[in-house]
Amino acid sequence: MLQRVKNLWNHRRVKQLTDPRNIGLYIFLIVVLAISWSAVKTVQTNYELQKQISTLKQQNEVLKLQNQNTDLQNKYLQTDQYLELAARQDLGLAAPGEQVMLISKDAALKYVDQSLVPKTEFASQEDKRSGYAKNFEAWRNFLLGRQLRQD
User: Fewer beta carbons within 10 Å, N or C terminal of the chain?
Assistant: First the structure.
């Protein structure tokens, strides 16, 4: 067995592989691979950071637009038109020469198309089916294209 290892070690191909010139080449190859791996990791990290920067810039733009929208809404809430409308709706006030008529909700909704009224007002009138039956019907309507969206 020992003789076999000596023969293998003295073999011409093994001597070529362990030649000092080739060992230097191997070390150079390992250094090049390490540098390449580092470069790939750096590029990948930069790509991830660029994605984060892009996402944050988009979020920043959305927040700026929301701020602008809030500013416009605040300006609208300070206008005389809004104040007059709020006085009419919330306080029941009227302009000079107008008369205010109070109508009950039931009487007002009697002549309104029920499909235009939000569902929250008629929650008490919903059917008493089980959750499974409602879910099944909702999926059936969705898959058959009968009801594309619910308000």
Answer: N
Q: Could you say which DSSP state residue 41 is in?
A: H
> Is 92 found in the same domain as 116?
no
Whether 21 and 84 share a structural domain: yes
pLDDT in tens, the chain (151 residues): 777 776 666 667 777 777 777 888 889 999 999 999 999 999 999 999 999 999 999 999 999 999 999 999 999 999 999 988 888 888 877 778 887 777 888 888 888 887 776 665 445 555 677 888 888 888 888 888 776 555 4
Token duo for residue 83:
């104040």
Q: Is the pTM of this model over 0.70?
A: no
Amino acid at position 79, single letter: T
| Whether 43 and 97 share a structural domain | yes
Three-point CA angle 40, 42, 45, nearest 5°: 110
Q: Structural domain of residue 12, as residue ranges? A: 2-102
Structurally, the chain folds into a number of domains equal to 2
